[in-house]
Amino acid sequence: MEMSARDAEIEKILLWISAISFSQKHIDVLETVQPGTAQWLLRNETFRDWVKGAVDVLWCPGIPGAGKITPSCILLPNEDRELAVTKTLLRWGADVNVKDGDGWSVLMSAVRGGRVGIIRMLIEGGVDVSAATAREDNALSLATRNGQGEIANCLADAGAILLANDIGQRASATGPRKGLQNIVRRLSKGYAALPARELQRQEHAHPSARECNELTESTEQSMIFSEDLDSLDSARVFERRYEIVRDLDEGRFARVYLCRSKVKNVRYAAKCFKPHHASIKNEIIALTELHHQNILRMINLIADGDMKPMYPVLEMTCEGELFDFIVERGKLSEPESRSVFTQLFSALEFLHGQGWIHCDIKPENILLRDKIPAIKLCHSGLMTYVGLGGTCSALAGTPRYVAPEVLARSVDRSYSFPVDIWSAGVVLYICLCGFPPFSDELYSEDSPYTLGQQILGGRFDYPSPYWDFVDNRALDLIDSMLNTDPTTRFTVSQCLNHGWIKMTWDFGSIID
Fold first, then answer.
1. b or e along 454-464 (b: 16 or more beta carbons within 10 Å of the residue's beta carbon)?
2. Which class does domain 322-511 fall in?
3. What is the rounded CA–CA span in Å between residue 173 and residue 362?
4. pLDDT tens track for 254-297
5. Domain at 5-194, CATH class
6. Strand, coil or helix: 415
7. pLDDT of 162-199, one tens digit each?
8. Domains of the chain, residue spans
9. CB neighbours (10 Å) of residue 355?
């Protein structure tokens, strides 16, 4: 016997009802069904009484297999009865992937109700286990957030995945706290290679010469030189005042030395800038004008007027880079990270207030003054003055730390202070677990996204067990900093006032 169109729609409705708790929600669902069917049921007095709870049993004659004496489609608030009803409906070809207007599916309803038996039946009936709602949620994320281990494993066995979005990330973070360490570890296996690999240094990309000239022309400050060199070149003046102890580093446009003052016998870091590159001017201006307790201070500047090598002499930090500290320790504790970022946010608040974008926040550019993480933020040749309302369009930054808006096409590229918040969010993630949220090593068959695609899509996770014991407020702060929309990304002020940053802590726990 063939089912009429009306009967087929009733089967869909009954399948919905079998998985959804008995509530007014039924009417919302019914109104999404094909025209005619919902109104036919809503006009039915017995059906209205059943919705109100006045009738415990609903019999819908006309469905194949429903006899006059032994109806097979009786619904009772009882799981065994629901299993029987679902089995009958599936046997007669009910649509297992039907959704309401928000994309909420039969499977999602069964997960919400904890109906393991119905979920297994739906999977056997070919339900789409990865289907997402209009809000980009899915059944596995819901089960993981709710701590429903048996259901989550059942869905994962059927091929369900956690979506690479904010909801999926939250599921990865909250699942372990609800006893689902194994399932989250299984779902986050793509991160497995990263913790075992030592954090790697990252080189930044400089703007082109044309872009540097444009940036320099937009900064209308005058350079201030601390030496009147007249007949002496800068190299000879530097050698008279300082003794080079050893090389520290060499970049694209500068070499850094550890030097000692011949007068004060104090050690400093000195940069020898190669001449004739426009980005030098930005850094020299920044070194000269930006004075803050958490920004590296320039002690002296030796240069002449012929664009020969320049020697800014900088204060020396005792403990080196945050990068080396992370590599040595594996990661930072929450109190250590909180200390570092309270100071970093303070430095960024000052920079942004002065109209400067740092453009290259990363562990290599954060220096430690002593054992208790007191920091100094390094200047970089990428620092850009935009004023309080300006933007920048240069393609500059370090790939792993760069914000999505910097990766936009050159004709569309326009960014400002939020890029520093994004980069700081990447650093905070690394501090708390020891490896980066975005990496080319995460590319796989299951997650075929390059580094750039991961950043542009905000595709990152909090894999177990590395994040199992990190405070949820820290994850919330990272989520707010790694927001792909710069207009709603946290500002530095919001970061400073976030609950995780304002938590109390003691230095004793850090020293131990």
1. bbbebbbbbbb
2. mainly alpha
3. 24
4. 677 777 777 777 776 776 766 555 556 666 777 777 888 898 87
5. mainly alpha
6. strand
7. 766 666 666 665 655 555 656 555 555 556 666 666 77
8. 5-194, 219-315, 322-511
9. 16
